[in-house]
Design goal:
Length: 452
């Protein structure tokens, strides 16, 4: 799978080999990816350390398959930031700045993925920014222009999504509260490009009221049960929510530096609040601002369900780290190489997420969104050897679909076709087995692989 284009065929090939090795071993550890082969260790290290391999080029390569995958769909462009801390010492900070609460060192990765609005299927990575802080900023936040703030990444990535996802029928950028920035509401939306953000600021309204008061005063529009996925150690559960919605007109903030922005912006506000939450659980309370028109309760619930799909990018971030590739355990010694390695890991984690999601074939994605033509040939030869005698042990998915490939990978990861569907750990084991077989496919008959 291509990692991007670097103006040199050898670098392109080296990047693809690094990416394949990362997928095969579900790790960022160079030694493990190279399986002890000194030449491979040196090759991977030289690629990440090569000055001609730019971080921006790797990030640009994320969307190669995504551009096509979103064609004709309503794509949810979901963005979020994750921090990764690395082990450092006072004498060796690896060039990394402070993260978390300032007591550890690491880097920040702001990532955007595309998700199908109808099915919730992950269509691939889109764009992002990866950086490490250089030091403390002395200028007060409000005294800095937006372009000089870290928060400007939300606008930059959303603006990039307009071009990258231009084959989509519609795009809705979804983000959490840090993305509630007036300039974003004022500059970016158009007829095919929408925003959906959880409100962070109790904004002043054009009628001299305040946003949160308006939400409370909207009439009750309904009650429904929302299924919440497992996240951040909290188990999956059902939440009973009340719904209110209506139109609001927000004012340009008094401290906004850019006085060319319009004085007001008209938006729709949806509030859901959980009733009867379980004991000891923080109840759901979302105030969601959007540029989508809302004609009734059905439209408002649709907005809520789209926002719920934010959990997919959170899962991608977990796969990057402790639940998958263990990025935080990398021993690379410089920030420059760690930044590039993180960019590779984002794409790998997104591909792993696509495999997990498409295990049921719900979106009919082709295998080519994850696997190369050569790898699909190996899967086709390998597939029959993974099938059993019972109906449950037959691959039910169309050949060359991603679901078909995911079924084979899951079987290689010791999934029995019974019980719970295969998850990230099973897929990770299966990918490692698959790439071992794939590399040896031309050296040894596949029937012998199946026996070993």
């Amino acid at each position: 799978m291509s990692l991007g284009h670097f103006g040199d065929v050898r670098l392109d090939r080296a990047g693809a080999e690094l990416f394949d090795a990362m997928m095969a071993h579900a790790t960022v550890c160079i030694d493990r990816m190279a399986e002890g082969e000194r030449d491979d260790v040196l090759q991977y290290g030289r690629f990440l350390g090569n000055a001609r391999v730019k971080l921006a080029q790797i990030v640009a390569g994320w969307a190669e398959e995504t551009r096509t995958a979103v064609a004709g769909r309503h794509a949810l462009a979901i963005q979020d930031t994750t921090e990764t801390k690395f082990k450092t010492s006072p004498r060796n900070r690896r060039g990394l700045g402070r993260v978390k609460k300032g007591n550890v060192h690491g880097l920040l990765s702001h990532n955007m993925i595309a998700v199908d609005a109808e099915t919730g299927a992950c269509l691939g990575a889109v764009t992002g920014e990866i950086w490490t802080r250089k030091g403390d900023v002395s200028t007060p936040h409000r005294a800095r222009r937006l372009e000089a703030r870290e928060s400007a990444r939300w606008l930059r990535c959303a603006a990039q999504a307009k071009e990258i996802l231009n084959q989509a029928a519609m795009v809705t950028v979804i983000a959490d509260r840090e993305s509630d920035i007036y300039a974003e509401w004022a500059r970016l939306p158009d007829a095919r490009f929408h925003l959906l953000t959880r409100a962070n600021v109790n904004r002043k309204l054009a009628n001299d009221g305040y946003l949160f008061d308006a939400a409370r005063n909207f009439p009750l529009a309904g009650t429904a049960t929302l299924e919440l996925p497992e996240r951040s150690g909290s188990p999956a559960r059902s939440a009973t929510l009340t719904l209110r919605f209506g139109e609001v007109v927000i004012r340009r903030p008094r401290h906004e530096n850019d006085r060319t922005l319009p004085k007001t912006v008209r938006l729709q506000l949806v509030e859901v609040r959980e009733i009867y939450p379980p004991k000891g659980v923080e109840p759901i309370h979302w105030r969601l601002l959007t540029t989508h028109e809302i004609a009734g309760a059905g439209d408002a619930w649709r907005i809520v369900n789209w926002y719920k799909l934010r959990w997919i990018i959170e899962q991608v971030h977990r796969i990057m780290k402790s639940q998958g590739f263990a990025l935080e355990d990398s021993q690379l010694t410089t920030a420059d190489r760690l930044l590039k390695l993180t960019a590779v890991t984002v794409k790998a984690a997104t591909k792993a997420m696509q495999l997990v999601q498409e295990r049921d074939g719900r979106d009919g994605l082709p295998a080519s969104v994850v696997f190369s033509k050569r790898e699909i040939e190996t899967l086709a030869a390998l597939g029959p050897t993974r099938e059993g005698k019972t109906l449950r042990q037959q691959n039910p998915h169309p050949i060359n679909s991603l679901a078909w490939a995911a079924w084979i990978i899951a079987r290689l990861g010791s999934w029995t076709c019974y019980g719970k569907p295969p998850g990230p750990i099973t897929m990770r084991r299966g990918l490692e087995s698959f790439y071992h077989i794939h590399r040896g496919y031309h050296l040894k008959p596949l029937s012998n692989h199946a026996k070993t």
